[in-house]
Each structure stands twice: as structure tokens, then as C-alpha cells.
Amino acid sequence: MTAREINRFFxxxxxxxxxxxxxxxxxxxxxxxxxxxFSPALHLFSITEEANTVQQNLEKxxxxxxxxxxxxxxxxxxYEQSATDTSNMLKLAxxxxxxxxxIFDSRISAEFGKPTRTVASANIDLKLYQFNDANxxxxxxxxxxxxxxxxxxxxxxxxxGSSETTLAAASRYGAVAGINAGGFADTPDGKRYPLSTTxxxxxxxxxxxxxxxxxxxxGLSADRKLIGGKFARQADLxxxxxxFGATFVPILLKGGVKQQIPSQWxxxxxxxxxxxxxxxxxxxxxxxxxxxxxxxxxxxxTLTELQDKLAKLRVVDAYxxxxxxxxxxxxxxxxxxxxxxxxxxxxxxxxxxxx
Length: 355
Prior knowledge:
Blueprint (H helix, E strand, L loop, with lengths): L2 H24 L13 H73 L4 E4 L3 E9 L4 E9 L5 E5 L10 H8 L3 E4 L3 E3 L5 E3 L4 E2 L2 E2 L11 E6 L4 E4 L4 H5 L3 E7 L2 E4 L2 E2 L4 H5 L6 E6 L5 E6 L12 H10 L4 E4 L8 E3 L2 E2 L13 E5 L2
Antiparallel strand pairs: 1-2, 2-3, 3-16, 4-20, 5-18, 5-20, 6-7, 8-9, 10-11, 10-12, 13-14, 13-17, 15-16, 15-17, 18-19
InterPro entries: NAGPA
Pfam families: NAGPA
GO molecular function: hydrolase activity, acting on glycosyl bonds
């Protein structure tokens, strides 16, 4: 093939493309491109404004955090101060609560010396003292009851008309201490009954009897407070909610004031073994037992002497319990006093104390 023929061949082959190119160049064809809305100053302003807002919010949050921290710190300081004040108040209250007992203990120690025997438990605190008065030998038992199980009264062998010694009653019940309670009346058939109004476990043993011959009821209320006195109506005694109690004569102190002792009890007998009970202002009990070798009036204590001693100790209310051969004080399984009968007398009622 010659050069001329070759040129003709390439010309024919390229003709379509050349024509298309010419058409494109000659045609009025336009291509619309999307416009970009780019405003650097506007966008920069918007970003700056948002940044400022964020900065302001951060500053506010920081300020709030600082204020919150300060408030928490103040509350914490107040809490610490309050806790300290509460602790100090508790210590003061504890000290003040113990102070009356210490005062009473100091009064007793000044009068009787140091306790010879003590018992301390969750139920009760007992302190036993021995002392020598100018005219008699005596014992004192201070009782601090901490629960309803600390003290009770027992009927002799748990039967109306029966009797047993204080030591036997304490042993039978497992009591740590015991003391004689109210008076009694014997019958021809050999039975021994509690004198007049008697209450056991909140119930009247054989009904209520109005006070006569200066008799006085003495016992404990449902809230472990010493109660007693003369009662013409059962309703008056019921108001005191007696838990247990017995009857004897006379009343020695009321509200710290000495009561008039009936003349027959001043001299018949003048001196005798005695058992008396009183309460302090903090409701602790004090029993005093006076020894005597008989009931003929030549040994033991007078009621006036015991009344004076109770008043000196600032006892609030006080009552005389059965005395003479009935006077009995037992402690931890042993008889403490010297019974005038030469042995303990069987009694229809006894006060018992439990560890």
C-alpha cells in the first residue's frame, strides 16, 4: 500500500470523530455548576459566637461547681460541728444521768460506809451495807431495778394460807436476795394469811379492803415505782397500777415529810427488830433491817430512829414492813440478819430480787 492510500485510510477512519468534535464546538452547550455559598466572615462570626456561648456556659458551670463545693463544705462543717455537739451533749447527759446515783451512793456511804457485798447484772444492781447505830445493829440494801424481772413478791409456797421462810422462797425461785414483806393473820387451823389488801401479778389476792387501824399498802407499780398509802376505795389504788404489794403499818415518810407515827406503834414495843422500805428521788429502793434479840422492847430500833435515818438520807416515801421475828434479810443463799426467833420465821409474803 502506498503512502497516499494509507493517508486516505486514516482520514476516513477519523472522520466521524472529527465531525463530532466540530459539532460540539459549534453547538451552544452550557453546563451549570452548583454555586457554593461560602462566606468566610459570616461563618467565622457564627463559630466565634457559639464558642463564646460555650465559654460562658463553662464559666457559669464552673461558678456553680465552686458554689456547690462551697455549700457542701459548709454543710460538712456544720455536720461535723453538729456531730461534735451531739457527742458532747450525749456525754453530758450520760454524766448527768449517772450523777443522781452517785449522789445517793455518796449519801449512803457517808451513813453506812462501803458496801460489804454487791451484785450487778442487766436486771438489777444490789448493794448490801452493814452498820452499827448507837442503839442497834443494822443492815441496808440498796436496790436499782433495771427490768421488770428484777423484783417480785411471792406467796408462801405459792398458795393462799401457806407460808415459808424468806430463804426458802429465794431458793425455790432462784432469787439472789430476799426480804420479808407484809403482815399476816393466823387461823386456828394453822394457816397463815397475808394481812388485808394484797396484790400479786397485778391482781388482788382476795379482794380490796379499805384501810383500817392505820394500815398501809406498800408495793411496786407496773412501771417499777414504789407506791403505797391508805386507800378508802379500790379505784384510788388502781390508779397507781399496782403490780404487787402487801399491807402493814405505819407510813413513815410521804414526799420526804415525816408522818405521825401512831402512839401504839411508838411504844408497843418501843424497840424491836424492824424492816422498813423507802425510795430515793431516782426510784431506787432502800431497805433497812434492824437486828434485835427479842420483841419485848429492849433491843432493836424504834420507828422514830428509822424514820430519822430515812429522812437524813433524803428518802422520799417510806413504809414500815412486818418486823419482830418476821424480820428477814437473805443475800446470795445466806441469812444476813440475826432473826430474833433464833431461826427464820415462815411468812405468807416475801419480796424477792433476781440477778
